[in-house]
Amino acid sequence: MAELAIAIAGVLSSLCGHQYFDPNVAICCQWSVTMRVAGLRTKCCGTTAFDPDSHKCCTNDNVVEKIAGKRTVCCGMEPMDPRTHKCCGHTVQPLVAGEDTHCCGYESYDPMERLCCKGMLFPPHVHPNCYGCDGMHEKPFFDNNKHACCEGKLVPAIVGNLTCCCKAQAFDPQDRICCDDKLQDRVGGDISACCGDKNYDPKTSICCNGNVLPRVAGNMTRCCNTRSFDPDTHVCCDNKKLAKKTRKSDSCCCGDEAFSPNKEVCCDDEVQPKFKRGTQCCEKKSFKSQKLICCEGSIQSLARGRKSITRCCGQKSYHAKKELCCNNKVMKKSKKKHTGCCGDVSYDPRTEMCCNGEPGPMLKEGTRCCNKNSFNVKTEICCDGRVYPNTMVCCNEKIIIDTNKEICCDGNKIETKAHKDDNCCCGNTSMNTLEGICCEGVPQSLEASDKTRCCGQLSYNPDKEICCENRVVPKIDSKDNWCCGDTSINTNLHICCRENKQPILTLVENTFCCRNKSFNGRLQMCCTGDVVDKRTPSDDYCCGKATIDTQNEICCEGKPIGVSDTDYGFCCGDDAGDTREQLCCNMKLVPKRRPDDDCCCGGTTMNANNMICCKGNSEPKEGGEFTKCCDDKAQHMQEKTHNVAWTRATILMRSCVVMEK
Questions:
Q1: How far apart are CA 400 and CA 408, in angstroms?
Q2: In this structure, are residues 429 and 418 in contact, taking their beta carbons and an 8 Å threshold?
């Protein structure tokens, strides 16, 4: 059981599946141990831990951010602010009509403007004032031979059921046309069409990106962005620019120039000649690929006219069977079988190894490089660029010739052996791992042969002892798996509270410490060091010697008080009030006279932005910041003048202020 214990932090006291954990820093989510992300407030969403103050658990155990604080709700797997959006079939939709917004399938709509029939949302012209539902179909409330429905209002039909609407106005579509909600006379008779907010005659004009333009080539006229053109004389390039044709066969663009793809090719925006066979581009030039090759923008000839044996080396071509490309330079092969470069010479990688620019023999047993030499990895070693027999040892580029006398420690320091058979370094000495164990640089005896473990600088037998913070503690029971003070405990049965052995209450995951005592976290809480019974199972905070549920209560001078909304609840002495409706004046709750009141005055409330309190009497600030109190009345301190009357008024006002003080 001890092998299953996992030290996450502090004292192990809870079990999650087959795994032990510290409930102060971790939480058990569906038999999976997860680190707490919000202390003891942390909650589970499937196997994921989350902070309930900033996140919410939605469908399919999906943790989402609270985008609207406590008001956030789930819409399927997504968070939603109900003040601005509505959930329609697990899809977040905008409130298009405020609180009157309805859902039609997966869409939100305004029931005063749109018609919904069994999940089918009709376009705006099928207005609910004029149409009802017949199953999934719309049903008019009017005779369309006598009336037309325009923006939800019935208007007389001008031409029976052929009447159309342009916003709220009915019209005869044979004489007029509605373009972008603008009613106008048809300029092309029955064939008139809209182009933006204007109509035009398609026989004489063409619509190009909202612009009415003349047909310069009759029915053959085409558009190029906002221009019309004759395709017999011009080509439209990328729907932006017009290029003039030099030949009738020109049909494509190359940069800003027109060309014929049957006779030419476009190479990097340059028109180049096209050959009968194998035409390719080499940057801005075309070439015959049967006779030439492109090497980094340079046209080169094929070796012996054969593409199969020609390769590129930088901007030059070369004969691949006779030459090699080494560092962008063409080099002749020393031997035909050479296929690689080694420095400035060629070599055969199958039988040779290239070591720092020098070819060396490839050995069957295994070959490596040592500076410019190759060596046998089974019989030799490389040390400081030199080859030595493998009976020696290389230690930080220094060679140990007699391994019976010296040993390499930490791969960089040569030390004299304490004993001939030592095979390991330990602190400032050496030891034999068959006879001892190294514990933080101190050789120790094998207390339990291969089971021996280290505890700081001490060795111990894990079957009989436990290591706790570099202290070896004897096991009281063989099943004990952790320490508690100077004794051992079994974390399935006990919990360690300030080095005091305490019993597990009901379940391991519900048992916590309160100073030196254990308590049941489902039914109790630890408040100022004392175990207190929860008033309700949902209580999550202490209030004096009692507990409260912070979702609907606040603590006022150690007394739990229920409130309608904790976002607006506040304390006034040992009583609680609502900031939207009350103020605390001299430790007493006083109802607000107006919702925007923010301070007390006498036995009532006022708004300090537009009122002033004069001896308990609220007076309007008619002079703004220049308003002052004189006894229980407000006075407007007017701008200074140079007459005597002003001087006397000022003296009188000051005397009033002094008397008030």
A1: 8
A2: yes
